[in-house]
Write a structure and sequence with these properties.
Blueprint: H1 5-18, H2 21-27, E1 35-37, E2 43-45, H3 47-58, E3 64-74, E4 78-91, E5 94-109, E6 112-123
Parallel strand pairs: 1-6
Antiparallel strand pairs: 1-2, 3-4, 4-5, 5-6
Helix pairs in contact: 1-2
Length: 140
Amino acid sequence: MFATPDEAEHAFYEALEQGDLNRLMQVWADDEEIVCVHPGGARMVGHAAVLDSWQEILGNGPLLIRPMRTVVMQSMMCSVHTLVEQVSAQTPEGLQIAHCYATHVYHKGPTGWRLVLHHASPAPQDAGMLDLHDMPDTLH
């Protein structure tokens, strides 16, 4: 279904923005070993647990999450993405923005690249914006 891990990641965030649970779960592998950890939440293992967690979250409406500063480590059958998520939410006090660190692991199988792990945790408000220690060194 997804020819590259980047296509799968794009579909993941697009599904969240549209609040489309079915599309979101198409990104996930069908394996029972998939794992999902939401910020401050418990570890969910297995397709049913992951589905239930996203169903509860998306029950409150779509999520506007902008992935930023992605670092990718890829081999032939596995791709690990670490990134900063900028989460925007409309509240009675107005637009609120928070940041999370996220790790995604994608495996390549017969149906293309699929998500097997999503792990997100709270990050400082200025995560990745001003600090350079989280970026690989560059040679000049």
